Amino acid sequence: MPLRTHRVAAAALLGALVLSLTATGCGRSGSPPARGPQPGKLPHYAVDSGFSLRSSPTWKSAEKRGHLTIGVKEDQPGMGEMNPATGAYSGFDIEIARMLAASLGFDPEKDIEFKAIASANRETALQNGQIDFYVGTYTINDGRKKLVGFAGPYYIAGQKLLVRRAEKQLKGPQDMAGKKICSAVGSTPLQRVEADYPKATAVAYDSYAICVDNLLNDQVDAVTTDDTILLGYAAKDPAKLKVVGKAFSTEPYGVGVPRSDKVLARTLDKALTARVRDGDWKRAYDATLGLSGVPAPKPPRIDRSLTS
Ligand code: GLU
Description:
By secondary structure, the protein is α/β, with parallel strands linked by helices. The protein has two domains: 39-157 and 252-307, 3-Layer(aba) Sandwich (D-Maltodextrin-Binding Protein, domain 2), CATH 3.40.190.10; 159-244, D-Maltodextrin-Binding Protein, domain 2 (3-Layer(aba) Sandwich), CATH 3.40.190. It contains eleven helices and 14 strands. A hairpin with a 6-residue loop joins strand 4 (80-82) and strand 5. Helix 3 (92-103) packs across helix 9 (262-277). The longest helix is centred in the C-terminal third of the chain and has 16 residues, at 262-277. It starts with 5 loop residues before the first strand and ends with a helix. Bound molecules: glutamic acid. Glutamic acid (GLU) is lined by residues 119, 136-139, 184, 187-189, 225-226, 251. Residues 119, 136-139, 184, 187-189, 225-226, 251 line the site of glutamic acid (GLU).
């Protein structure tokens, strides 16, 4: 069967947010997500107040502006999620962003503006200077390295499948033939389904939240992306959703930076190493993604051969 990919451009981010709320119940009462990160339990990151990095053009302009503008996801529970009632962001990626801001001399409580950027728009956002750096389930790979720079990796994820709780047939990628498999435009999991599983019908939306809504409404058979993201959705609606199978890819997460700002990338590498060493990385994991029940893995080592 020929590969069919439906790219649905019309329902963009607003739709994603509304649908995600309907699907997950998040924010209905204005309270934080039931199983989500609790603001009072998040780590405090020591701010390096005397810090200066004038050889980084990105850092220099952020300092002049008075805050960092960091690109993130807004609809990925446990990783990067915005509470619409308060506007507050939470999740493991958000904590990584906050600890890195502190290492760059910015107060994570006051000196960060988070900007939600979907998977397909990350490279443009970094190239246009809309954001200083990006922390949002962003896989380091050769194609992207032609367009942006990376620091990291700070986590290794893997592609899996999210299905309805009652699903019996779909247990892994080997069962995807003839099934509608949903993922996000501009993501590596979508590319993998299109390239390696031609008998599956790939369905693409701007965000995973729309895919999850379609899964709950029987419009697609599975959602595929990184286990980190899928676990967050399953943890929010365990009566209706489950993650199945073994990971069938390796997704090393990097911090996306403007390609020419090598100084910033290497400084963030050092900051990540230090935050792993002092326990902040683990504390951040435990307070966010760890709530899904999966214990903290060993953090990956910074790998310049991957990022440069
Ligand atoms: N890590 C994968 C990627 O960067 C999937 C998650 C995402 O779309 O952010 O494409």
